[in-house]
Amino acid sequence: MTGKLTSVNISLRKHVPKEPVAEAELRPGHGVVGDAHAGPGDRQVSLLGAESIERQKQALLAAANGRGVASCPTAGPQLAPGAFAENLTVSGLEVWKLPVGTCLRVGREAVIEISRIGKECHRGCAIYRRLGDCVMPREGVFARVIRGGLVRPDDEVRVEERRDTDRE
Fold first, then answer.
1. Structural domains for the chain
2. How confident is the model over 59-80, as pLDDT tens digits?
3. Percent above pLDDT 90 for the chain
4. What are phi and psi of 107, to 5 degrees?
5. Is this model's pTM higher than 0.70 or not?
6. How far apart are CA 138 and CA 161, in angstroms?
7. Any bridge partners for residue 147, and if so which?
8. Given CB 3.0 to 4.6 Å as the disulfide criterion, which of 55, 86, 111, 134 pairs with 48?
């Protein structure tokens, strides 16, 4: 199974949307170099499907229309890749349906291992406050970096064989 890296995103502070960048380095045991969330642990890199963002955007637009608002002009920019503070936005691959332990090759060199599906949103989550819902607790994915490398938009994201986690 393969997908495509739609966007690579970083932020210098936590609890804010991430901004797209032309490339980023994934470092083993650390995560995305230069990102505020990088560090040891099982949440070194966050992923979200572009399709998940689109579903959330459509829900926000529907909620606005349900309140008699013809459109929600701020939904587009606010729900662009990085809006959910994900490092990697992936299209064509339902990453949230892959089991923990699944490895993904991102680009030519980088390999990450899914370590967690979902998260608790922080209290100040702007998306949740506006919509009453946020996709990250259900479809956000976290991973550890197994093999480092540079990643860029348009890189292939390929499911690799599941690792034997008892070996390390």
1. 2-162 (2.40.33.20)
2. 777 776 665 444 444 444 467 8
3. 57
4. 70, -155
5. yes
6. 24
7. 111
8. 86
